[in-house]
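thread: overnight batch results

M.L. [08:02]
morning all. the overnight job finished for the chain we discussed friday. pasting input first so we're all looking at the same thing
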Amino acid sequence: MEHSAPAHPARRILVVDDEMTIAESVAVRLRAEGFAVELAHDGPSAVAAAEAVDPDLVVLDVMLPGFDGLEVCRRIQARRAVPVLMLTARADETDQLVGLGVGADDYLTKPFSLRVLAARVHALLRRVDRAADRDGATILVGDLRIDVDQRRVWRAEVEALLTPLEFDLLARLARRPRMVLARERLLEDVWDWSDAAGTRAVDSHIKALRRKLGADLIRTVRGVGYALEAR
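M.L. [08:03]
and the structure it wrote out:
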């Protein structure tokens, strides 16, 4: 008797943590959610695993032997843009901002709820799917040009290399130039989840966009949010 192949192959998640108990617990939960999970426990093996399995998303601890999670994130993102959820044992905001600055899309501080982790994973993947399903278009705002189909960005004809989340955040602002969008609204629209603590992630990615595209491009409205300025 012939068996047909699954219509939708399981999404591949790479879980990287040197604490075996945490790694296995996360893997069990994500497999129960229907994902195919690969494990790595140090920096070099994480980079090798990312090249071998081509994951749809990476759950990545900051503190790793070999080299740390920040370096793993840099190397993975240099090869291919992939959503990264970082895990950190420290609540220090500086550590979180550095992680977001090297290309991570989101972070959780240990100890964390496996339910919350699974929800964040689903939200990140929904965002990727939503971006992929959008009709191709070119957004022009002053000297800023955004090719939505190719996911490429130029300012004054100089291309800027953005992470997937940076691109989505910029495109969201560019679709409503000069309109002030609240941090909470951006968090819901771009990250697909709502959590007041997550507004720090919005601020961190805005800083990254300013660094790559110019400090004058995005205006801060204190206590409210951000607006893209047309020049």
